[in-house]
Structure formats: C-alpha cells, structure tokens
Design brief:
Order of helices and strands: EEEHEHEHEHEHEHHEHEEEHEHEHH
CATH class: Alpha Beta
Protein name: YALI0F23661p
CATH architecture: Alpha-Beta Barrel
Radius of gyration: 19 Å
GO molecular function, one term: FMN binding
Structural class: alpha/beta
Bound molecules: flavin mononucleotide
Family: Belongs to the NADH:flavin oxidoreductase/NADH oxidase family.
Number of domains: 1
CATH superfamily: Aldolase class I
Largest sheet: 8 strands, parallel, barrel
Cofactor: FMN
Number of helices: 12
Helix content: 25-40%
Keywords: Flavoprotein, FMN
Length: 374
C-alpha cells in the first residue's frame, strides 16, 4: 500500500516536516511564574519523539497585560522580554530540536475573559474590544472597558515583540491565537464588539485587529514563520455562531490572507489552522448541517491545519483530500507521547485523563507511557 499523505513529508513555511500530524496547542498550567518548567522540557521533548513533527505550544501570554487568569495566572507561560522566561523556552525548544522536530509558539491575549483583580496586581486594566463582558460574568461586566485606538496599536506591537522573543528563544515560528473567544476573536465577533470606529461595525472592521497583528508580525519575522488559528464554529466563551453572519465573516478573513499571498508569495502565511465544527473549546460538539470548513478551504490555497475530533481513520482520510492538509491532534497528543509513531504503525492509542489536564506535577503530563517499539 502506498504511504498515506498523513505520513508524507511536507514543507510548511520555512519548516521541513516529515509528516502531517501536528500537536495542537494545549494549555497545561504547569509553568512556574510564567517560566516553562523542567517538566515542560520533558513533556514537549517526549511529544517531539518522531523527528520532523510540528508542535504548537500551549497558549502563551504575549505580555503580563494579556493574561489575568484567576487561580492559575503564573502557571501559564509568557513570552515577553524576561531573561528567565526566554531561558525556560530555550530549554524546551532545545529538547524539541534535539529530536529533529519543530515548534511554533502560540501567542495569546485573553482580553475580556480575564479577571480584573488578577490584572490589577500587575497594574493592568480589564479590556476588550467593547465594554461587553461574557454572559454571566458579573465581575467582568463591572470592570471591562473598550480599548482605545492607541491601546490597540500597542497591543499589535506586543504581538510583534512576543514573536521576536519567540524566535530569539529558538522557536521555528509563532501561531497567532485568533480563536476560542480570546482577544482577536472578541474583535471578530459582532456580539462582543459594538465599536463604531474602524475596528467595529462591519465584517472588514471586525477583522482589522487580527489582520493588523498578522501583517505586523509577518513583517517583523517573515510570513513563512507565522500561522494563525481561527474557530469559526466555536461558541466557547460566548462567541455567537450564526448561519447568516459566521460564514461571510470568516470567508473575508481567509480571502484577505489569500489575497496577500497572491499579491506576493512572500506574504503567504506558513499555514492557517482551523478548528472543525465537531470541537468547541476543549470539548466535543455536534456540528449543525450548515457548519463546514469547506468554504474556507476553497478560498485558501496554502497549507491548512484542521483540528478537532480526529482519529487515525478520519485524519488519514482528510489528509488524503489534497496535498496541503495537516491534521492537528489535541487530546490524543496529551495521552500519547509517541502519537505519531502509534498512528504510523496503527498501534492502539491511550485515552486521555481529563481530571489531570490542568493539575500540577508529572501525573497526566509526563507519565503517559510510550508504546514498546516493535
Ligand atoms: C486541555 C486542553 C487545553 C487546550 N488549550 C488550548 C490552547 O492553549 N490554545 C488553543 O488554541 N486551543 C487549546 N485547546 C483546544 C485544542 O487545541 C483542540 O482544538 C481541541 O482539543 C480539539 O482537538 P482534539 O479533538 O484533537 O482534542 C485545548 C484543549 C484541551 C483539551
């Protein structure tokens, strides 16, 4: 039998890969004061064990003002200009590179879903596109305010600085997290953005923040080291999904990115990463009949990572549809440090243990077994 596309090499942006199985970004809340720990070095190095695999890091704060998670703030890594942070990432990245694999760091600003008191401890405000909190967040509703235009420009600059730091630490690229109801996605969605300036009020304007970040980061480090993640069908954190509005909104974003690439191939992003309608945040979902990523796939002619609810069979089938699709695995990568080896050899997969997704220490993190080599 010929090798399925999933296990064939592909060049994604500047990175040569040996296969099309990608480790999806997975928050694991085990950093120490925003510094990736030695345990993280072990965890990522394990998952890089098949040479030529692309790993996307857990979501990583671009700056202290971009965080604000109640109860787990310091457990999320950062990538701002702090010597210990950069040194921590260097160790993780050296581990991944020692196995011959690649890493993109996922750049994160959580915007309005942060906690006001946590942000105040570092002297920052709770901000979003508009003074709209997610439904049920009474504390957020009291405090959240709209970013001013100069503040939006500063945010874009923070993404640029973070991307440069990621490369300084040795990363192969960065993924801009424009999915799952975080800051760029809050701008994209009409129900979290009621601005009347150039950042709201129309499809073009709601897309502007994400596109400005993408353009600025690409100009700084090269588009062949930049990917972006979108979740058109995710309702997580109060993002509205709507038959009339979602499709044109996200089509526009894909069209804009394809347009930039057509004008100049140097501006082609290394990939777009899109979440399937059968995943919503960190859980499964039942897609509605009108929810499909095919319209976006027909617009964007570059490399595409599709993630959400894949198993071996559906991953092979989907990667077979063309010669530019990669498949992101989330939960199976948590539970299988040698996932690529197991998929290639059709070996049984370990099921994930949900209670230890976010707990401290090695349990459920570095203690999942490798399959015995045949
Ligand atoms: C524990 C956990 C943490 C996650 N953290 C992130 C994250 O940091 N950034 C992100 O974009 N998605 C995150 N996700 C979503 C995954 O990347 C992925 O889209 C989702 O798990 C669906 O894929 P799967 O069915 O292969 O698990 C997380 C999912 C889980 C289960």
């Amino acid at each position: 039998m010929t090798t399925p596309n999933l296990f064939k090499p592909i060049k994604v942006g500047a990175s040569q890969l040996s296969n099309r199985v990608v480790m999806a970004p997975l928050t694991r809340t085990r950093a120490e004061k925003h510094v990736p720990s030695d345990l993280a070095v072990e965890y990522y190095t394990q998952r890089a064990s098949t040479a030529g695999t692309l790993i996307i890091s857990e979501a990583t704060y671009i700056h202290p003002s971009a965080g604000g998670h109640k109860g787990r703030e310091g457990l999320v890594p950062g990538i701002w200009g702090d010597a210990s942070i950069i040194a921590g990432w260097k160790k993780v990245i050296q581990g991944i590179h020692s196995k011959g694999s690649k890493i993109y760091i996922q750049l994160w600003d959580i915007g309005r879903v942060a906690n006001y008191d946590v942000l105040q401890q570092t002297g920052h405000d709770l901000v979003g596109p508009s003074a709209i909190a997610q439904a049920g967040d009474e504390d957020g509703a009291k405090h959240v305010r709209a970013l001013t235009i100069p503040e939006i420009k500063q945010k874009v600059q923070l993404y640029v600085d973070a991307a440069k730091n990621a490369l300084e630490a040795g990363a192969d690229g960065v993924e801009i997290h424009s999915a799952n109801g975080y800051l760029p996605d809050q701008f994209i969605h009409w129900n979290s953005n009621n601005r009347t300036d150039e950042y709201g009020g129309s499809i073009e304007n709601r897309s502007r923040f994400s596109l400005e970040i993408i353009d600025a980061v690409s100009a700084a480090i090269g588009a062949d080291r930049v990917g972006v993640r979108f979740s058109p069908w995710t309702t997580f954190q109060d993002m509205e999904v709507n038959e009339e509005k979602s499709l044109p909104q996200f089509k526009y974003l894909f069209e804009q990115l394809e347009k930039r690439a057509k004008e100049n191939e140097k501006n082609r992003l290394s990939y777009i990463h899109v979440i399937e309608p059968r995943a919503d945040g960190i859980s499964d979902a039942i897609p509605k009949q009108w929810q499909s990523n095919d319209p976006f796939r027909n617009i964007w002619t570059g490399d595409l990572i599709r993630a959400g609810g894949y198993n071996r069979e559906t991953a092979i089938e989907t990667a077979q549809e063309d010669d530019r699709t990669l498949i992101g695995f989330g939960r199976y990568f948590i539970a299988n440090p040698d996932l690529v080896y197991r998929l290639e050899n059709d070996l049984p997969l370990t099921h994930w243990d949900r209670p230890s997704f976010y707990t401290p220490g090695p349990h459920g993190y570095t203690d999942y077994p490798f399959h015995k080599k045949e």
